[in-house]
C-alpha cells in the first residue's frame, strides 16, 4: 500500500541515489587528498544537499543533470591539478 502512496519508481528516482553516493565519494577523496579548495567542496556539498532534497520531492532530468555537472566540475578540476604537476 505504501508504494502506491509514493508512486512507482521512475528512472530518475532510481538514478538519484547512486549519483548522490558518487558525488559524496568524490568529495571525500577530494578532502582526503586536498585536491579542491575547502570553499569549492562546501559549495558542492550545499548544492548536493539541495539536489537530494529535490530528489525526495520531485526528481527531474534537470536535477540529474546538476549531479552530472557537479561531478564533472570536481573531475575536471582534479584533472587540471594533475596536469599542473607534469
Describe the structure.
The chain has helices at residues 2-6, 11-33, 38-58, 61-85. It is built from 4 helices and no strands. The N and C termini lie far apart (58 Å). 15% of the residues are buried. With 86 residues, it is mainly α.
Name some characteristics of this structure.
86 residues, 4 helices, 0% strand, disordered N terminus
Q: Layout of helices and strands, plus pairs?
A:
Layout: H1 2-6, H2 11-33, H3 38-58, H4 61-85
Helix pairs in contact: 2-3, 2-4, 3-4
Total helical elements: 4
Largest β sheet strand count, sense and barrel closure:
none
**Average of pLDDT:** 83
Structural class: mainly alpha
Portion of residues within helices: over 70%
C-alpha-based Rg, rounded? 15 Å
Distance between the termini: 58 Å
Global geometry: elongated
The sequence of SSEs as H and E is HHHH
- Total strand segments: 0
Which runs of at least 5 residues are low in confidence (pLDDT < 50)?
Answer: 1-5
- The share of residues in extended strands comes to under 5%
Short description:
By secondary structure, the protein is an all-alpha fold.
